[in-house]
Amino acid sequence: MLLRNLDVSAQLCNGTRLVVLSIKADKKLLKCRNLSNGEPANITRMHLDYCNEKSGIAFRRLQFPIRLAFCLTVNKSQGQTFDKVGVILRTPSFAHGSTYVALSRCTTKEGLKVTRNWAKVPSLPKTRNVVYEEIL
């Protein structure tokens, strides 16, 4: 997953999902495929600044602006569609409509899997879909 906005017109934005195809021998370039549009993308290293507010220590690293991501938050998945979706409901929905957003990302009901902590649920599993009627 991309961590910075690199080229909005090429859909290389913060949160874009990528598949790394190869790393160049000099380790300065990643050849990737953008999962949003299927287009190839070249990602170079860039300086990323960090500052630990607690200790006041600041430093700069030269690194690829990507992170390994096996899953996405509901917020990051908004606006995207997937062939297969697994939704983990450890706690009730945290915001208005987030359950709907999570469940509606999948293109088919066969591709949708939902799980939660079954050991603590004596009856049929349920979760709340939080709706704040005052904002409707």
Automatic annotation (TrEMBL):
The chain positions of domain DNA helicase Pif1-like 2B read: 1-21
Task: Report the GO molecular function annotations.
Answer: ATP binding
Q: Mind telling me which Pfam families this protein's record contains?
A: Pif1_2B_dom (PF21530), Viral_helicase1 (PF01443)
The Gene Ontology biological process annotation of the record reads: DNA replication
Please state every residue range assigned to the domain named (+)RNA virus helicase C-terminal: 50-108
Q: Per its UniProt record, what InterPro entries does this chain match?
A: (+)RNA_virus_helicase_core_dom, P-loop_NTPase, Pif1-like_2B_dom
Record-level GO cellular component terms: replication fork
Residue spans crossing the bilayer: none
Q: Which PANTHER family has this protein been placed in? A: DNA HELICASE-RELATED, OS03G0423850 PROTEIN
The name under which this protein is listed is ATP-dependent DNA helicase
